[in-house]
Design goal:
The complex is a heterotrimer of chains A (about 200), B (about 180) and C (about 240). Chain A is mainly α and about 200 residues long. Chain A folds into two domains: about 100 residues, no CATH class; about 60 residues, no CATH class. Helix content of chain A is about 75%, strand content about 0%. In chain A, helix 4 packs antiparallel against helix 5. Chain A is extended. Chain B is an all-alpha fold. Chain B has one domain: Orthogonal Bundle (Arp2/3 complex 21 kDa subunit ARPC3). Chain B is built from eight helices and two strands. In chain B, a hairpin with a 5-residue loop joins strand 1 and strand 2. The radius of gyration of chain C is 18 Å and the shape is globular. Chain C has a six-stranded mixed sheet, sandwiched between helices. A four-stranded antiparallel sheet of chain C has the order 2-1-4-5, covered by helices on one side. In chain C, helix 3 packs across helix 4. Helix content of chain C is about 35%, strand content about 25%. Chains A and B meet through helix 1, helix 4, helix 5, helix 6 and helix 7 of A and helix 1, helix 2, helix 3, helix 4 and helix 8 of B.
């Protein structure tokens, strides 16, 4: 399945995922502690510089992912215009965009397999006290395997619906769709069992 | 054991797949995505414990960087974004929906699951509003104002969750673990 | 040596409906075919022989292994290829899918990785290493399932109509792969042509054995009966 990792290789792709996540945590906490427009503006500029460093394609790709924030930015703008508190509004808006931007940056520069590696590392203490993490790893693999397949079957269902109806498929398609997931689960359980189970 | 893992994983995949189905428009122009319906179904069908695990598995993959939230969103940005509270509230909502469905046996499943999903929805909004209040630096009451447009959609989704759960129970009684 | 295939008086009911009625079956042929109509119980029989479903009564032993109870020994003894490869493949990539069975046998990660390479090379599919499963064609997925099973070196492989739904060239190519398999094959099909070269064919009808013998004897009899039924209208009968 397509992940949100950027196809543009950056220097940050090689950094250890754990370190990037730790840095992100620290930066986010810092952003929420920082209470000045100048400070937030500097953080925002730094975030933009990080996006610009790998090149124009990466920058455009990264900014496109921040577009989902615009309705909230619009609300903040109107709100603080009405209440006449522009400084507070600027801090909130800059902090929001910088925090989401930095988090996206970690996602964009970290391979899925490296992220799963961090999960395994975090789960290691569980293994040491005797809790199996095999089910977790199996679960991750199963979701990656079956999400595109379920989506495909859902598309087939809605085609079957539209073949005999002038209207778009509504919520009634959720029932047969859920049945497909349940029946697939029973077969997966069989397939797991056929090769030795969990 | 195999069956539990398979059902948990397939319901996690179901939440993701429901996010891909285009939003259904309500009569008064409010879009509702089927994704949070999937979260409620995890609870009402799989029960509190397994339903919560399914939602947690889904969220883990979202945080790891898969674009599984509706609209193709994913990655770590969604946690710190304005709707992060809703995302964090997903597993709690599934737990509450499952808990009500499991414990309340005195009424038809369509009613208990529907009420379960509604109570789960209230919990979801509590998390969502809290998250929005923090990120946008507003009071909870002010943040609540911003999400009122979505309440009718979610009320309808609770009804649908109840109907779908009871229809599933008729079609695949063995798979509705909340009644097992 | 214990019989490769030994079923004694196997009966099974699912959700209140009797599916298999006292099936007794012994065999040591390397290629056994099972024919029957849709709903005759042959897929359920496949699941019982693979040890995925314990019978209500009776005994199933393959090479002396009680496959429903002793799952550890069962996965070294029997593999099953489902009709739809999408119901079989658990993992998102080719390597993970093949390696899973090997680690289940107790191999280390390195041993399993070597096993994956070996089986891919054996089939001339070295370039499949690391490929994602989702974009594979149906025939490619089915071949992946076969490789994943063969890598585990079971002594008997149950084929639950893996060729139906494939186009003619793909089916012929997969059949060639299957013909080359060293393990015993128990091939379930509703297509007599697929089983023509087999050592023995068993005809299942209504959850019981209707005929059992040489392919040359059973298959023509089966085909004639299917054509007779084709002229009738039992499609209108509801199960119950």
């Amino acid at each position: 399945m397509i992940s949100l990792t950027s196809p543009v290789e950056t220097w940050a792709h090689g950094w250890p995922a754990g370190a990037k996540l730790a840095a992100l945590c620290a930066a986010t906490m810092g952003l929420f502690a920082l209470d000045s427009v100048a400070g937030q503006g500097a953080a925002f500029a730094m975030m933009l510089a990080l996006y610009a460093a790998p090149g124009a394609v990466f920058l455009r790709n990264g900014l496109a992912r921040l577009r989902m924030l615009w309705p909230f930015l619009a609300v903040i703008f109107v709100w603080h215009l009405v209440t006449a508190t522009p400084a507070e509004g600027a801090i909130i808006a800059l902090r929001l965009v910088t925090a989401v931007g930095l988090a996206n940056l970690v996602t964009m520069t970290t391979q899925l397999s490296d992220m799963i590696g961090v999960v395994r590392w975090l789960a290691a203490p569980l293994r040491r006290i005797g809790i199996g993490t095999r089910a977790l790893e199996l679960g991750i693999a199963l979701v990656i395997r079956f999400t595109p397949m379920l989506a495909q079957k859902g598309a087939a269902l809605s085609r079957a619906w539209r073949a005999r109806s002038a209207r778009r498929p509504g919520w009634r398609i959720v029932l047969p769709f859920t049945l497909i997931a349940i029946d697939d689960a029973e077969r997966v359980a069989d397939a797991l069992k056929a090769r030795g189970g969990v | 054991m195999e069956r539990n893992i398979a059902l948990i994983a397939l319901f996690a995949a179901l939440i993701a797949a429901l996010g891909i189905i285009p939003a259904v428009m309500l009569p008064f122009g409010v879009p509702i995505t089927a994704q949070s319906l999937g979260v409620m179904l995890c609870g009402t069908v799989l029960g509190a414990r397994r339903g919560t695990l399914a939602v947690l598995l889904f969220l883990l993959l979202v945080f790891l960087g898969l674009p599984l939230l509706s609209g193709g969103k994913g990655g770590l940005g969604v946690i710190v974004g304005p709707t992060g509270g809703f995302v964090i509230g997903f597993p709690v909502a599934a737990f509450v929906a499952g808990f009500v469905t499991e414990r309340w046996r005195g009424a038809p499943l369509a009613v208990t699951a529907g009420v379960g999903a509604a109570v789960g929805g209230v919990v979801l909004y509590a998390f969502g509003i809290a998250g929005m209040a923090i990120v946008l630096d507003k009071t909870p009451a002010q943040a609540a104002l911003l999400v009122t447009a979505f309440i009718p959609g979610d009320a309808i989704k609770a009804v649908i969750a109840g109907l779908v759960t009871s229809a599933l129970y008729r079609a695949r009684p063995r798979a509705v673990l909340s009644r097992a | 040596m214990a019989q490769p295939l030994a079923l004694s008086n196997v009966s099974l009911a699912l959700e209140g409906r009797a599916i298999l009625h006292g099936i007794t079956l012994n065999g040591d042929q390397r290629r056994i075919g099972i024919v029957g109509r849709n709903g005759s119980g042959k897929s359920t029989l496949a699941r019982v022989i693979a040890g995925l479903q314990a019978p209500d009564s009776g005994d199933v032993r393959l090479f002396g292994v009680d496959v429903a109870q002793d799952r550890k020994a069962a996965i070294r003894t029997v593999g099953i290829l489902f009709q739809n490869p999408d119901h079989q493949i658990i993992f998102p990539t080719v390597d993970e899918e093949i390696a899973f069975g090997l680690t289940q046998l107790g191999q280390t990660k390195a041993e399993a990785a070597a096993g994956v390479r070996a089986i891919l090379e054996q089939f001339g599919k070295g370039h499949w290493a690391g490929a994602a499963v989702h974009p594979l064609s149906q025939g490619q997925k089915q071949l992946l399932c076969l490789m994943a099973i063969l890598a585990m070196r079971p002594r008997l492989i149950v084929l639950d109509e893996p060729l139906s739904g494939l186009d003619i060239p793909t089916r012929m190519q997969l059949m060639r792969y299957l013909d080359g398999v060293d393990a015993h094959l128990l091939h379930i099909s509703h297509d007599p042509a697929t089983l023509a070269g087999y050592d023995r064919v068993i005809w299942i009808s209504g959850g019981a054995i209707a005929a059992d013998g040489l392919a040359a004897d059973v298959l023509p009899e089966f085909t004639a009966d299917m054509q007779r039924l084709g002229g009738m209208d039992d499609i209108s009968d509801l199960a119950g």
